[in-house]
Design goal:
Layout lengths: L6 E10 L5 E4 L2 H7 L11 E4 L7 H8 L6 E6 L13 E5 H5 L10 E4 L2 E9 L2 E5 L9 E11 L2 H11 L5 E5 L2 E6 L7 H17 L5 E6 L5 H7 L1
Helix pairs in contact: 4-5
Length: about 230
């Protein structure tokens, strides 16, 4: 039985109870069939750290009472899913504010407002109504899930966090120092830098046996230039 603090890998499919619409899944095939596939998503069993708010509360609770290999379906109320709708998060903004930023708003458009995603609900009479509530706020959802693996050992957990950060590298634990090594073949672009920072943060937050992370990035002469030409 899984419990709080465990690292697990799990497959899941999330649906909106009202209409059965799939909004989240770990299966590439299911994502394509549901029309929600994204080439930027990493499909396959997801690494979840139970009790650490890495998934919505209702799913976290269900996973903590699940057995490895056992498929379950749980219905989750809004309070334990994406929250209840907050009328205060619906705002009306003059369209002139958008034009100053060379933005032409339209219903359904998702934009960044106050460092949070906001959906344009309507554009009328020189005013734009935007909603900063989560798209599924107020909705009951259901998840069909299965824990495929319980991850044991600090090094194995670090490797799982590495893969979950979409990074291809090697990890080695020596006493309280975790070494993460990235070969010359790993593209060191801006995405790599963000993923690396997220990985280091996760390791130090979730692996108490690790007191220090050492990152080794290997480069070879001519390799970067050659890749850019290709």
């Amino acid at each position: 039985m899984a419990e709080s603090g465990d690292f697990v890998k799990a497959e899941y499919t999330g649906k909106r109870v009202a209409d059965g619409r799939i909004f989240d899944c770990t299966s590439e095939k299911t994502a394509k069939e549901a029309g929600i596939y994204s080439e930027h998503m990493k499909y396959g069993p997801a690494v979840i750290i139970l009790g650490k708010q890495t998934v919505i509360p209702g799913l976290d609770e269900a996973l903590q009472n699940a057995k490895v290999g056992e498929q379950q379906t749980v219905e989750i109320p809004p309070e334990k899913a994406f929250g209840v709708r907050d009328p205060a998060l619906v705002r009306v903004i003059p369209i002139s504010e958008f034009k100053k930023q060379d933005i032409q708003p339209y219903p359904g458009m998702v934009l960044n407002l106050d460092n949070a995603p906001a959906t344009v609900k309507s554009v009328s009479g020189g005013r734009v109504m935007v909603d900063l509530n989560h798209a599924l706020a107020g909705d009951a959802v259901s998840y069909t899930f299965k824990i495929t693996e319980k991850i044991e050992g600090t090094e194995a957990k670090a490797k799982a966090l590495l893969e979950n950060s979409s990074l291809n590298g090697e990890v080695k634990l020596s006493k309280e120092v975790l070494e993460a090594k990235f070969a010359p073949s790993v593209k060191k672009d801006s995405e790599f830098l963000m993923n690396k920072a997220g990985f280091v943060t996760a390791v130090l937050a979730f692996l108490p046996d690790v007191k220090k992370v050492s990152v080794i990035e290997e480069y070879e002469a001519g390799k970067t230039e050659e890749k850019e030409k290709k």
